[in-house]
Amino acid sequence: MKQSEELRRLLESIDRRSYPAYKSAQGSYDFGSFILSIDHVQGDPFAAPSKVSVTIPHQRAGYPADYFNQPWKKTALEDYLVRQFGREIAQFNFKAKGSGKSGLIAISSPGPEILSRTACECGKSGITARFEVGFPANGRTINSGELIRILFDFLPRCVRSVFFYKSRKPEEVQAVIHLSEDQHAIREELKKNKLISFVADGAVLARESGISSRPMKDSVPFTSPESLRVTFQLPHKGRITGMGIREGITLIVGGGYHGKSTLLKALELGVYDHIAGDGREYVITDDTAVKLRAEDGRSINQVDISLFINDLPNKKDTHSFSTADASGSTSQAAAVIEGWESGARAFLIDEDTSATNFMLRDELMQQIISRDKEPITPFIERARGLLENVGISTVMVAGSSGAYFYIADTIIQMDCYRPQDITERTKAACAQFGADPTVNAPDFKLPPKGRKLSAGKSPLPAARNAASSSTPEAARTTHGRYDRGQGQGRGRDGREERIKTKVYGKDSLQVGREQVELRFVEQLIHNEQTAALAQMVRYCVEKQLFARCTVVQIVDLLTAQIEKGGLPAISDSSYAAMGLCMPRRQEIFACLNRYRG
User: Fold this and answer.
1) Are residues 382 and 333 in the same domain?
2) Are 7 and 145 in the same domain?
3) pLDDT tens track for 358-405
4) Do 100 and 39 share a structural domain?
5) Do 309 and 375 sit in the same domain of this protein?
6) Which is nearest to 200 in space by CA: 263, 291, 115, 259?
7) pLDDT for residue 463 is more than 70
8) Total of domains in the chain
9) What is the pLDDT of residue 91?
10) In this structure, are 298 and 412 located in the same domain?
11) CB-based contacts of 563: which residues, under 8 Å, 6+ apart?
């Protein structure tokens, strides 16, 4: 490994040369207390910034080993370090001058959720932080003096301040770890007590606005109804009370603007841990819960939706249903089956974003349009079967129909953001009002497992298809490259052809020429999760997994590769893995199911 002074001399020697001379700086350099790696150099000062990383050995970093000896603590510590490093480098951002992105220093920008990111990893040998630096230039002429300031002055100060435990406040770091242990303890309590969610007394659920994740000032703190209150003893916080939502069918009702959707949104994001001060750090939901909604226009690929839809007038087979332009009802039916395949133990549904004809048919409609003329079996007739046959609970917000009162196990009324348990009173009213609308529900029969996606035309060149027909492991070498033999799968200039990926915020991605719309996958919360999904789809295409494996097998293979080698294991280059964030298993399923290729 080269020494830091060799890097300084190199940068001094290329000063005022044309920008491509920066490429000679790629490599790793020993700075004494840390190792600096210049992993990728941008093409010019106006291109995407250069990729840089630092690695601090554990003996120098000094963070206690028991702060990262469990996955949840490790993720919490990494998240804390990313946030602190982001704050430190922000004070030096663009302090080095030049054209374009010269002087930029940036790392991943997390929201209130705590996620596993490639921006910082506590590995076996040390802590690695990955970030971007805009290498300075005047026009396209290197200004290496400014880069020397960044790498030899700004960066070492930030590294020492954040990644050396002795520079931090021990009680601050300890609080992060203690919170992660408490949050994990609540998740364990959910399983023991057959709960799907917990909302702590005093939690702040409302947000500043629809585009802000910050807690609303002067909002009504959450208070559990006495009948639903549970108490946990946490390892560090001690006694905590709040509302426990039991396994089963839970209905959330109330007048408009009284907090129904606000509560559901908090439950929906409770699949992730949150940072202290967010107001929802003790709102915890079963981490497999899936938000369901109608999604007009999405693609559906080989899904058996016969549990909900049968005997279509066009005779289309609903036991293996595919469409490039789904309706609201077919999209929501497919989402239920796909959610079951993904291992979800709870469905979260808002009536406002659901297809009305999928959710229920009232008594008058059933009298006018007989069952044999209606191909849809509504969700209200399947919710109990999902619970009793496969253990999937339902939490639903309803505001316009009382039909779901009959099947609900728990009914929560939101009144000025305060929940009330009205189950007994509502059940008494149901007994007087009329018969249960689900008494004549058709038999419940789940589709068989082992669904495969129907593969479209491959975006790979013919030579690559031939080379990829062997086993995935035999074809792979490193970072998505393939050993095809001389000249196979290469362009006119002799370079290896690759499938390119693009990410458009968190709402969509592109693999080759195929775009995947994800804006209605509402538990996908960060663009780096979308970037990771783009790499996963590319990996599947290059490995020809869609043609050879079931959906479950594909997800199992992807997660096994990531557990073994991290997100870089499924990325097409080492530096492409820098801005990735791990999505849940459920979002991986959602992405693959929406891929039209």
Assistant:
1) yes
2) yes
3) 998 877 777 777 666 778 999 999 999 999 999 999 999 998 888 999
4) yes
5) yes
6) 263
7) no
8) 3
9) 96
10) yes
11) none
Task: Indicate the DSSP class of residue 238.
Answer: E
Q: Is residue 57 part of a domain?
A: yes
Asked whether the beta carbons of 572 and 276 are under 8 A apart, the reply is no
Distance between alpha carbon 82 and the CA centroid of its chain, in Å?
A: 17
Contacts of 123 (CB under 8 A, 6+ apart): none
427: CB partners within 8 A, 6+ apart: 405, 411
Domain boundary among 382, 413, 433: 433
The residue type at 372: D
Q: Decide if 265 is inside a domain.
A: no
Measured distance CA(274)–CA(254) in Å, rounded: 27
* Per-residue pLDDT tens digits for 427-445: 999 988 877 878 778 889 9
Within-domain flag for 138: yes
The Cα–Cα gap between 517 and 560 comes to: 25
DSSP 469-525: TS-HHHHB-STT-B---TTTTB-TTSPBP---EEEETTTEEEETTEEEE-TT-TT--
Nearest by Cα to 568 from 132, 121, 131, 1 = 121
Same domain, 141 and 54: yes
Given 128, 143, 168, the domain boundary residue is 168
Nearest of 561, 567, 579 to residue 476 by alpha carbon: 561
Structural domain boundaries enclosing 473: 462-594
Tell whether 509 is covered by a domain.
yes
At 99, list the tokens: 């054209």
Q: Which two tokens stand for residue 102?
A: 């010269």
Kindly report the number of other CB atoms within 10 A of residue 258's CB atom.
Answer: 18
On whether both 569 and 427 belong to a single domain, the answer is no
CA distance 412 to 249: 11
> For residue 485, what pLDDT is reported?
30
Query: CA torsion, points 419, 423, 426, 428, in degrees to nearest 10?
Result: -150
Rounded Cα distance between 76 and 54, Å, is: 19
Transcribe 170-183 into DSSP letters: HHHHHHHHHHHHHH
> How many alpha carbons fall within 13 Å on the CB side of residue 285?
25
The verdict on 373 and 468 lying in the same domain is no
Amino acid letter, residue 340: W
